[in-house]
Amino acid sequence: MNLRLILGFIFLISAYGLLIPGVTEPVLHMTTMLDKGELTVLGKEAILTSGTIPNFLMPVTMEVLNQIHATGTVIIQDTSKSILGTAETLWLDGNQLVAFLIVFFSVFVPALKLGLLAISYAFKRFAKPLALSSGLLSKWSMADVFVMALIIAFLAIKASSGNSALLQTNIELEAGFYYFLGYCLLSVLSSQLLARDFAVEPKTQSD
Length: 207
What we know:
Layout: H1 3-24, E1 28-35, H2 36-48, H3 58-66, E2 73-81, H4 83-92, H5 96-122, H6 127-140, H7 143-160, E3 167-173, H8 175-195
Antiparallel strand pairs: 1-2, 1-3
Helix pairs in contact: 1-5, 1-8, 4-5, 5-6, 7-8
């Protein structure tokens, strides 16, 4: 077994070792906080402009409202979602097709690909067709698409956070994202190394 093949196997095993936490661990953590000071100001304005306060009570009302002050923030949303957790939420919300596609392309296809590669090396006579089938499955793997979608979602929410004085949204990439990214990179690298082992050698013409 040559060095390229050994490295290919090492990267492959490492890739699928990262896949499990990649789909089960949280990938994004989003926190939405409400500013108490801004909420107090909006509440005062709503009361004063409601038209329900008689004119003779307006000075007293304004004096009372001016004594009300609030500082700090309160968390109204604190969410961490994994890829499988997102699929479960979509399923329960009635988006079964989207949930199925997420699980199919991020879990089933990689697992099937690993199984074909394992069988191809256990049974040499089936090695080439199984390896070719594994290569075809790689074209259906959307791991890179998921990673790019996560990056785009992260940047979009990050760019829109802080635009409102009342609501503050913070978003952070969690460990699951880096596990899944590592799986994608190692999977591609291992596929490149192992695919060469089944490349058809060009025939040489004899004189």
